[in-house]
Amino acid sequence: MSYIEDDKKYIAGTYNRFPLHIVEGMGSVCYDEKGKEYIDLGTGIAVNTFGYSDESWVSAVTEQLCRFQHTSNLYYSSPCITLAKMLCERTGCSKVFFSNSGAEANECAIKAARKYAADVKGIKNPIILTLVNSFHGRTITTLAATGQDVFHNDFLPLTDGFAYTPANDIEALRESVDKYNPVAVMFETVQGEGGVNPLNKDFVDALVKIAEEKDILLIVDEVQTGNGRTGQLYGYMNYGFTPDIVSTAKGLAGGLPIGATMLFGKLGEVFTPSSHGSTFGGNPISCAGAVNVISRIDDELLKGVRERSELIVNTLSNAKGVKGVTGMGLMLGIETDRPAAEVVKRCMEAGVLVLTAKNKVRLLPALNIPMDTLEKALEIIKGALE
Ligand SMILES: *Cc1c(COP(=O)(O)O)cnc(C)c1O
Q1: Of 2, 182, 247, 271, which sits most exposed with the smallest number of CB within 10 A?
Q2: For 338-372, what is each residue's pLDDT tens digit?
Q3: How far apart, in Å, are the Cα atoms of 197 and each of 327, 333, 334, 374?
Q4: How confident is the model over 141-179, as pLDDT tens digits?
């Protein structure tokens, strides 16, 4: 297997790869070089929204690719304008900034909150409160925002200006707000990397109320929960509040790099020429892919997401070896008797790709995975739990 040796020899050792070499994919299935078929319930970590090489997505992307692949942000180009307009109309945000990844979308969210603090409130060293067990990215600043020491340890000193409070603990939230007087609270509605744990409605309601009373910005990291994943277009829509800033990435362009930071209301005016920027941000090909994805996430598709979710929850909740199922929509975590890594390995051998998050098996299937394909995959997962 020369590719394994060459990978180890030439690629920085940040990934512990599985012994699987994907050479082709179609919808929710993919193939290794020996032609073995796998049902993919991981979608490249919630990226391939409509699976591999979806036909309508491919033609939207190729059409743009044949027109032109890139221009600088010094000139106007249509795909990013169309996408921004779509996101504003669908969410009620007033402006969008485009970047290339989740970490960058969060960097922009943090910069927007800090600039707002400086411009509007005259605060010089603002604190942003984030949640324990959160995940916001791998840059030095988004690592600082990430409320998990395991990610911090080897990379000190991190960016100042962050404090942490436990998720789903209203009393602790009140204390943290009093103690740190934060300009913003940043959170995922379902903590993905932290173990697929949704925030309780009570906690979010309390947070929204406190934020309103104390004029604190709400930054929602929808990098993983966004773009239909939870059964609503964005995860915050399950909770019924209006955020100030929403970041998203992963599934937005259906498999191409993109990040988007949505600025609501007064935050829309915070950036001025040269206060932020990105060479690749708003890339026409990525945006053409995203326009295709967002235009297809309608009520019917979201209903399908919730139906698929129910099928998974109903099938696995009472299955042998399952202790519980957490999450929302097609972002689900399964707590199992045996170690999650062992379940992943067994599933892979049996032709199903699943992920882990902390101690759970994590499922992030394509939003349009055919029901029969999903049923087949669930039978295989059940077999791996026996
Ligand atoms: C994946 C993820 C990120 C980081 O996204 P990258 O594109 O890897 O930079 C940030 N926040 C959340 C919630 C994520 O799931």
Answers
A1: 2
A2: 999 999 999 999 999 999 999 999 999 999 999 99
A3: 6, 8, 11, 22
A4: 999 999 999 999 899 999 999 999 999 999 999 999 999
What the block records as the tokens of 146 is 């990430």
72 and 159, same domain (yes or no) = yes
Which residue of 110, 191, 193, 358 sits with most ligand 1 atoms within 8 Å of its CB, as the best mutation to test the pocket? Answer: 193
pLDDT digits (tens, 9 = 90+) for 47-57: 999 999 999 99
136 CA distance to ligand 1 centroid (A)?
Answer: 6
Say whether both 131 and 159 belong to one domain: yes
Specify the pLDDT at position 231.
98
Q: Which atom of ligand 1 is nearest to the CA of 106?
A: 10
Domain co-membership, 200 together with 133: yes
Q: Do 256 and 110 share a structural domain?
A: yes
Of 255, 278, 296, which residue sits at a domain end?
296
**How many angstroms does the Cα of residue 232 sit away from the middle of ligand 1?**
19
| Domain membership of residue 329 as a residue range | 2-54+299-385
Token pair 């299955």 in the structure block, residue = 319
CA angle 105, 111, 115 (to 5 degrees): 145
